[in-house]
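HUMAN: You are asked to prepare a plain-text protein record giving the amino acid sequence and the backbone structure tokens, both parts labelled.

ASSISTANT:
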Amino acid sequence: MLKTIAALFLLFVVTGAQPSCKDARGACLYWPTNDCMGGWADKEDAERQCNGGNHFRCCMACDTQCMENQEEWSVDDEPCEDALGICQNSTNFCNGKYEDGLCGGPGERKCCDTKKEGDCPLVEYEPTDAVMGYDDVEIRVHPDFADSLDAVGDAARDCDVVVKVVFSFRKRRFIKNRNPKTDPPKYSNFHVGHAVHVFLDTVDGICFGTCIAAAEKPGASCFTNRLTKLGLNWGGKELPFNIDDGFNSDVTAWKKLLRELKDVC
């Protein structure tokens, strides 16, 4: 709240001294931290100058037509979104680099691709007697999902089955024409470390997807019922070999985490 009040006060102080920017239906704002949908006036434009230093610039107003254009152009922003970038007017500040050809609309609307450095927050889940990697495969998940795997292990023990993980985290790749039958969903939990692809080892042998869905082996039905009670998804008849925690039900949180993992995992 204080930050908002301060920003509004600063806007009032700065714009109050710049009638040329106001007359052009713009507002003087701090360029590095504000997104301007209408685009920023050229800092060399003498008629749209702002006081307050080099980083204060004139943000041009985005009228009704401008808003309608943005909505229309954004339909073709998927290539940029899949690259975890943000489509915006290229006069805006980009903490990275601009890429051409990934956004809808005119040429000045470009994809801001931000690169991050740091340590990958994913963890290697320690195998147990009830949850282990198939053929010693590494189980890489987000720490928040590791607790869910502990609960999966408890369910497996109670139902006398062993969960064998075939794969877990998978880095996202751009798919232009996504096939729902063969390609992962657009907001797949595998891309953020909140899912595992599994089969069951039961007292009566191996139980893969169709076997799990049909509860053909002892313990399979017990196990999936326990997962449901725990609030975990096991895919049902469509994808009975996937277990996740429904993290992608909040798309905004999913996108935020994906951006955090993009360059470091």
